[in-house]
Design brief:
Helix content: 40-55%
CATH architecture: Alpha-Beta Barrel
Order of helices and strands: HHEEHEHEHHEEEHEHEH
Radius of gyration: 19 Å
Strand content: 15-25%
CATH topology: TIM Barrel
Structural class: alpha/beta
Largest sheet: 9 strands, mixed
Number of helices: 9
CATH class: Alpha Beta
Protein backbone atom coordinates (compact mmCIF):
# COMPACT_ATOMS: atom_id res chain seq x y z
CA UNK A 1 0.00 0.00 0.00
CA UNK A 2 1.24 3.48 -0.84
CA UNK A 3 2.36 5.40 2.24
CA UNK A 4 0.20 8.40 1.32
CA UNK A 5 -2.86 6.18 1.74
CA UNK A 6 -1.55 4.05 4.59
CA UNK A 7 -0.66 7.09 6.70
CA UNK A 8 -3.42 9.42 5.48
CA UNK A 9 -1.17 12.21 4.16
CA UNK A 10 -4.21 14.17 2.97
CA UNK A 11 -5.49 14.43 6.57
CA UNK A 12 -2.70 16.82 7.52
CA UNK A 13 -3.66 20.01 5.70
CA UNK A 14 -4.97 23.20 7.26
CA UNK A 15 -8.09 22.90 5.12
CA UNK A 16 -8.80 19.46 6.53
CA UNK A 17 -7.99 20.69 10.03
CA UNK A 18 -10.86 23.14 9.75
CA UNK A 19 -13.13 20.32 8.57
CA UNK A 20 -12.14 18.15 11.55
CA UNK A 21 -12.95 20.97 13.94
CA UNK A 22 -16.40 21.27 12.41
CA UNK A 23 -17.01 17.54 12.79
CA UNK A 24 -15.87 17.75 16.41
CA UNK A 25 -18.23 20.64 17.16
CA UNK A 26 -21.20 18.52 16.04
CA UNK A 27 -20.29 15.74 18.48
CA UNK A 28 -18.58 17.34 21.46
CA UNK A 29 -18.49 20.22 23.91
CA UNK A 30 -15.07 21.89 23.76
CA UNK A 31 -13.54 22.43 27.21
CA UNK A 32 -10.19 23.56 28.57
CA UNK A 33 -8.12 21.71 31.15
CA UNK A 34 -9.09 24.17 33.89
CA UNK A 35 -12.73 24.55 32.88
CA UNK A 36 -14.55 21.27 32.26
CA UNK A 37 -18.13 22.47 32.03
CA UNK A 38 -20.09 19.24 31.45
CA UNK A 39 -19.84 15.55 32.32
CA UNK A 40 -20.49 14.01 28.91
CA UNK A 41 -19.22 14.45 25.35
CA UNK A 42 -16.20 16.45 26.54
CA UNK A 43 -13.39 17.31 24.14
CA UNK A 44 -10.13 18.92 25.24
CA UNK A 45 -7.94 19.82 22.25
CA UNK A 46 -4.35 20.78 22.89
CA UNK A 47 -1.26 21.64 20.83
CA UNK A 48 2.30 20.78 21.81
CA UNK A 49 4.38 23.22 19.76
CA UNK A 50 7.63 21.30 19.30
CA UNK A 51 9.05 22.94 16.18
CA UNK A 52 6.92 25.61 14.46
CA UNK A 53 5.28 28.66 15.99
CA UNK A 54 4.36 29.84 12.48
CA UNK A 55 2.25 26.70 11.95
CA UNK A 56 0.79 27.19 15.44
CA UNK A 57 -0.46 30.62 14.41
CA UNK A 58 -2.19 29.07 11.38
CA UNK A 59 -4.00 26.70 13.76
CA UNK A 60 -4.90 29.58 16.06
CA UNK A 61 -6.42 31.64 13.25
CA UNK A 62 -8.53 28.73 11.99
CA UNK A 63 -9.79 27.95 15.49
CA UNK A 64 -10.63 31.58 16.15
CA UNK A 65 -12.62 31.74 12.92
CA UNK A 66 -14.49 28.60 14.00
CA UNK A 67 -15.25 30.00 17.45
CA UNK A 68 -12.92 27.58 19.27
CA UNK A 69 -10.34 28.25 21.96
CA UNK A 70 -7.52 25.82 22.69
CA UNK A 71 -4.27 25.63 24.64
CA UNK A 72 -0.82 26.02 23.06
CA UNK A 73 1.99 24.35 25.00
CA UNK A 74 5.20 26.22 24.19
CA UNK A 75 8.61 24.63 24.52
CA UNK A 76 11.61 26.45 25.96
CA UNK A 77 14.06 23.90 24.58
CA UNK A 78 12.98 23.62 20.96
CA UNK A 79 15.71 23.15 18.38
CA UNK A 80 13.74 25.13 15.77
CA UNK A 81 12.39 28.20 17.56
CA UNK A 82 13.45 30.43 20.42
CA UNK A 83 10.74 32.00 22.57
CA UNK A 84 13.05 34.93 23.33
CA UNK A 85 13.40 35.91 19.66
CA UNK A 86 11.30 38.97 18.87
CA UNK A 87 9.55 37.31 15.91
CA UNK A 88 8.60 34.21 17.92
CA UNK A 89 7.47 36.32 20.88
CA UNK A 90 5.24 38.30 18.52
CA UNK A 91 3.75 35.09 17.11
CA UNK A 92 2.90 33.80 20.59
CA UNK A 93 1.33 37.13 21.51
CA UNK A 94 -0.75 37.00 18.34
CA UNK A 95 -1.94 33.49 19.26
CA UNK A 96 -2.95 34.78 22.69
CA UNK A 97 -4.78 37.72 21.12
CA UNK A 98 -6.99 35.18 19.30
CA UNK A 99 -8.48 34.01 22.62
CA UNK A 100 -6.24 30.99 23.15
CA UNK A 101 -4.38 29.86 26.27
CA UNK A 102 -0.73 29.14 26.97
CA UNK A 103 0.72 26.04 28.60
CA UNK A 104 4.23 24.74 29.30
CA UNK A 105 5.63 21.90 27.21
CA UNK A 106 8.07 20.51 29.73
CA UNK A 107 11.18 18.37 29.16
CA UNK A 108 12.19 16.40 32.26
CA UNK A 109 15.31 15.06 30.54
CA UNK A 110 16.73 18.55 30.06
CA UNK A 111 16.95 18.96 33.85
CA UNK A 112 17.66 15.28 34.59
CA UNK A 113 14.64 15.21 36.90
CA UNK A 114 14.42 12.21 39.23
CA UNK A 115 11.77 13.16 41.78
CA UNK A 116 8.70 15.29 42.37
CA UNK A 117 10.62 17.99 44.26
CA UNK A 118 12.88 18.60 41.25
CA UNK A 119 9.88 18.54 38.93
CA UNK A 120 8.09 21.21 40.95
CA UNK A 121 11.22 23.37 41.21
CA UNK A 122 11.83 23.52 37.46
CA UNK A 123 8.15 23.84 36.59
CA UNK A 124 8.01 26.88 38.83
CA UNK A 125 11.10 28.27 37.09
CA UNK A 126 9.63 27.86 33.59
CA UNK A 127 6.24 29.17 34.72
CA UNK A 128 7.85 32.30 36.19
CA UNK A 129 9.87 32.90 33.03
CA UNK A 130 7.03 32.42 30.54
CA UNK A 131 4.49 34.39 32.53
CA UNK A 132 6.88 37.34 32.69
CA UNK A 133 7.67 37.18 28.97
CA UNK A 134 4.07 36.92 27.78
CA UNK A 135 2.15 38.57 30.64
CA UNK A 136 -0.25 35.63 30.57
CA UNK A 137 -1.31 33.32 33.41
CA UNK A 138 -0.26 29.69 32.89
CA UNK A 139 -2.33 26.96 34.51
CA UNK A 140 -1.31 23.72 32.78
CA UNK A 141 1.69 21.77 31.49
CA UNK A 142 2.37 18.76 29.29
CA UNK A 143 5.41 16.48 29.28
CA UNK A 144 7.64 16.39 26.20
CA UNK A 145 8.23 12.81 24.98
CA UNK A 146 7.10 11.21 28.25
CA UNK A 147 8.67 7.87 29.13
CA UNK A 148 6.98 5.28 31.36
CA UNK A 149 9.11 6.60 34.24
CA UNK A 150 7.98 10.20 33.65
CA UNK A 151 4.35 9.10 33.42
CA UNK A 152 4.66 7.92 37.02
CA UNK A 153 4.45 11.64 37.87
CA UNK A 154 0.68 11.34 37.58
CA UNK A 155 -0.74 13.68 40.18
CA UNK A 156 -3.34 16.11 38.91
CA UNK A 157 -1.15 19.11 39.75
CA UNK A 158 2.51 19.94 40.19
CA UNK A 159 3.71 23.44 41.08
CA UNK A 160 0.05 24.47 41.02
CA UNK A 161 -0.19 23.51 37.33
CA UNK A 162 -2.62 20.96 35.91
CA UNK A 163 -0.80 17.91 34.58
CA UNK A 164 -2.20 16.79 31.20
CA UNK A 165 -0.81 13.32 31.96
CA UNK A 166 -2.36 13.24 35.43
CA UNK A 167 -4.24 10.14 36.53
CA UNK A 168 -7.62 11.67 35.71
CA UNK A 169 -6.69 12.41 32.10
CA UNK A 170 -5.03 9.03 31.65
CA UNK A 171 -7.83 6.94 33.19
CA UNK A 172 -11.00 8.96 32.69
CA UNK A 173 -10.36 10.32 29.19
CA UNK A 174 -9.47 8.63 25.92
CA UNK A 175 -6.70 10.02 23.73
CA UNK A 176 -5.85 10.63 20.09
CA UNK A 177 -2.55 12.09 18.84
CA UNK A 178 -0.73 12.93 15.59
CA UNK A 179 2.77 12.37 17.04
CA UNK A 180 5.50 12.32 14.36
CA UNK A 181 3.00 13.28 11.68
CA UNK A 182 0.73 10.24 11.57
CA UNK A 183 -2.07 8.67 13.59
CA UNK A 184 -0.15 6.28 15.80
CA UNK A 185 -3.18 4.57 17.33
CA UNK A 186 -6.48 5.83 15.89
CA UNK A 187 -7.29 8.11 12.98
CA UNK A 188 -8.78 11.32 14.33
CA UNK A 189 -11.49 11.59 11.68
CA UNK A 190 -12.77 8.11 12.59
CA UNK A 191 -12.78 8.96 16.30
CA UNK A 192 -14.64 12.24 15.80
CA UNK A 193 -17.14 10.91 13.27
CA UNK A 194 -18.15 7.99 15.48
CA UNK A 195 -18.33 10.17 18.60
CA UNK A 196 -18.14 7.14 20.87
CA UNK A 197 -15.54 8.61 23.24
CA UNK A 198 -17.40 10.23 26.11
CA UNK A 199 -14.37 12.18 27.35
CA UNK A 200 -11.71 12.77 24.70
CA UNK A 201 -8.34 14.51 24.70
CA UNK A 202 -6.88 15.36 21.27
CA UNK A 203 -3.23 16.29 20.83
CA UNK A 204 -2.08 17.88 17.58
CA UNK A 205 1.38 19.27 16.81
CA UNK A 206 1.18 22.25 14.42
CA UNK A 207 4.38 21.39 12.54
CA UNK A 208 2.81 18.22 11.15
CA UNK A 209 0.20 20.21 9.20
CA UNK A 210 0.58 22.26 6.03
CA UNK A 211 -1.30 23.98 3.22
CA UNK A 212 -0.20 21.23 0.80
CA UNK A 213 -0.39 17.45 1.01
CA UNK A 214 3.10 16.37 2.10
CA UNK A 215 4.76 13.38 3.75
CA UNK A 216 5.73 13.71 7.42
CA UNK A 217 9.39 13.98 6.42
CA UNK A 218 8.60 16.75 3.94
CA UNK A 219 6.59 18.63 6.55
CA UNK A 220 9.37 18.64 9.13
CA UNK A 221 12.07 19.38 6.55
CA UNK A 222 10.09 22.46 5.53
CA UNK A 223 10.26 23.63 9.15
CA UNK A 224 14.01 23.04 9.23
CA UNK A 225 14.62 24.70 5.84
CA UNK A 226 12.36 27.62 6.77
CA UNK A 227 14.30 28.18 9.98
CA UNK A 228 17.60 28.18 8.05
CA UNK A 229 16.26 30.58 5.42
CA UNK A 230 14.96 32.99 8.06
CA UNK A 231 18.38 33.02 9.75
CA UNK A 232 20.14 33.72 6.45
CA UNK A 233 17.67 36.46 5.51
CA UNK A 234 18.03 38.06 8.94
CA UNK A 235 21.83 38.09 8.64
CA UNK A 236 21.80 39.60 5.13
CA UNK A 237 19.23 42.20 6.13
CA UNK A 238 21.05 43.22 9.31
CA UNK A 239 24.33 43.82 7.45
CA UNK A 240 22.57 45.85 4.77
CA UNK A 241 20.74 47.98 7.34
CA UNK A 242 24.00 48.63 9.20
CA UNK A 243 25.79 49.59 5.98
CA UNK A 244 28.32 46.76 6.30
CA UNK A 245 29.85 44.55 3.63
CA UNK A 246 28.47 41.06 3.17
CA UNK A 247 31.59 39.51 1.67
CA UNK A 248 31.59 36.29 -0.34
CA UNK A 249 34.00 34.78 -2.88
CA UNK A 250 32.71 36.87 -5.75
CA UNK A 251 33.36 40.57 -6.02
Amino acid sequence: MNNSIRYHFSDFTFENYRRLLRIARQKYVFCSFDDITVDNNILIWRHDVDYSMHAALNFAKIENEEGISSTYFVYLHSELYNLLESEITQLVNEILSLDHKLGIHFNCDFYNINNEEELEYYLNFEKYLLEHIFKHSIKVFSFHNPTPVILEFNKLRYAGLINTYGEFFQKEMTYCSDSNGYWRHRRLEDVLSKGNDNKLQVLTHPEWWHFQILSPKQRIYRCIDGRAKNNKDWYDKSLKEDGRENIDWDI
